[in-house]
Write a sequence for this structure.
């Protein structure tokens, strides 16, 4: 959500890293769009919908991290509901604030 800048004399790896980070904004937008379209869901369902729609390439942990970052900013919140996962454990159901 922050912009990343590099200096002209920074190593090429810094420039490559900055380019990869700017793609995070797209991931945030996709996650917010999924919540708007499908309502509250846990991370398992969020990832499943991301995959089903064939959206931008991202790892499961990357999708969870982007959702977590949105929660840290207050854009996504714990709905108070819980959903049982295949493992039998309960998971937080997230929603738009």
């Amino acid at each position: 959500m922050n912009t990343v800048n590099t200096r002209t004399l920074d190593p090429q790896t810094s420039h490559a890293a900055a380019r990869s980070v700017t793609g995070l904004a797209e991931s945030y937008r996709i996650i917010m769009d999924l919540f708007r379209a499908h309502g509250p869901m846990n991370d398992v369902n969020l990832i499943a919908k991301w995959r089903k729609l064939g959206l931008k390439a991202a790892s499961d942990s990357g999708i969870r991290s982007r959702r977590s970052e949105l929660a840290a900013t207050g854009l996504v919140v714990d709905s108070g509901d819980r959903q049982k996962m295949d493992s039998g454990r309960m998971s937080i159901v997230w929603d738009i604030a």
About this structure: Residues 24-38 form the longest helix (15 residues). The chain has a mean pLDDT of 87.
